Amino acid sequence: MKTFNQVALVTGASRGIGASIAKRLARDGFAVVVNYAGSESAAREVITQITKAGGRAIAHQADVSDAASVQSMFDHVEATIGTVDVLVNNAGIMELKPLAKADTQHVDRQIDVNLKGTINALREAAVRLNNGGRVINFSTSVIGLKFENYGVYAATKAAVETLTAIMAKEMRGKEITVNAVAPGPTATELFLNGKSDELIDRMAKMNPLERLGIPDDIASVVSFLASTDGAWVNGQVLRANGGVI
Ligand code: NDP
User: Fold this and answer.
1) Does 150 participate in catalysis according to the annotation?
2) How far is the CA of 91 from the centre of ligand 1 (A)?
3) Does residue 155 carry a pLDDT above 60?
C-alpha cells in the first residue's frame, strides 16, 4: 500500500498539461491537489482516474487571479491533507493579438491569471512550503521564438521567468528549489483552439522531432524537477519543446 506523505498542489489541473501533471505526480506517490477555476466535472474526472489507479487526490476550486481564494486554498489543503511540498504553477490562459489590437481586457485577463495568479501562489508558497520542497512555474518557449501576436502572453511569462530566478535565491536556507518549465507547442485546447489544421501541422513540424508536444511530455519534466533526482536544478528555465529553439 502506498503512503502519501508528500503533497503536490497543481494549479489548473482539470485539463491539458495540468491534468497530466496531476496524474503523473499521483503515480510518483504524491497526494495531489487538483486546482481548477471553472471545469468542475473535468477536475472530478481527474480525481476519479487518480483514485482508480491507487492514488490520492482532492479537487479544489480557486481562481488563481484572486489572492484571497489562493490563500484559502492553501489553508484548506493544510487542514485536509497537509502542508504543501510541491507547488506547480501551471494555470494559464493565452490570447493572441497584435499590440495594435490589444484592448484593456486582453491585457488585464492575461496579466491577472498568468502573472498575478503565479505571484498569488508564490507568495503563499514562500512562507508555507515544507523545507526541501519544490516550486515549478510555467513559462513558454515563445519567449525564445518571439512570434508575432504573442506579445502580452509572452510578456507575462517572461515575468514568471524573472520571478523564478529571484524566488530561488529568496529560498536560501530552506532547501527549496524554484524552476520553470517552458513548453513549446503542446496539443491542448490552449494551443489548438482557433488554429487551422494547416497551421497546426506547420507548427508541429517546426521542431526537428516533427511533432507537437503532448501533455505527458511536459508532465515527465515536472516529475523530474519534483523528484530527488531534480534536486540540483535550481533557478532554471527548462525548455521542453522538441528542440524548436
Ligand atoms: P489548457 O487551456 O488546456 O488548460 C488550462 C488549465 O488552467 C485548465 O485546467 C483551467 O481550468 C486552468 N485555469 C485557467 N484559468 C485559471 C484560473 N484563473 N485559475 C485556476 N485555473 C485556471 O492549457 P495548457 O494545459 O495548454 O497550459 C498549461 C500551462 O502551460 C499554461 O500556463 C500555458 O501558458 C503553458 N504553456 C502551454 C503551451 C501549449 O502549447 N499548450 C505552450 C507553452 C506554455 P478551468 O478549465 O477550470 O478553467
Assistant:
1) no
2) 5
3) yes
Task: Establish whether residue 110 lines the binding site of ligand 1, counting it when its CB lies within 6 angstroms of any ligand atom.
Answer: no
- Assigned domain for 244 exists: no
- Count how many domains the chain has: 1
- 199 inside domain: yes
- Cα-Cα-Cα-Cα dihedral sign, residues 163, 164, 169, 173: positive
Instruction: Give the pLDDT confidence score for residue 4 in this predicted structure.
Output: 76
Which residues form the domain of 136?
A: 7-238
Q: Is any ligand 1 atom within 6 A of the Cβ of residue 63?
A: yes
- Alpha-carbon span 229 to 110, nearest angstrom: 33
Q: Which residues pair with 36 in a beta bridge?
A: 61
Q: The cell 487538483 sits on which residue?
A: 34
**Mean pLDDT across the stretch 33-60?**
98
- Pocket mutation for ligand 1, best pick of 63, 87, 90 (most atoms within 8 Å of C-beta): 90
CATH of the domain at 171: 3.40.50.720
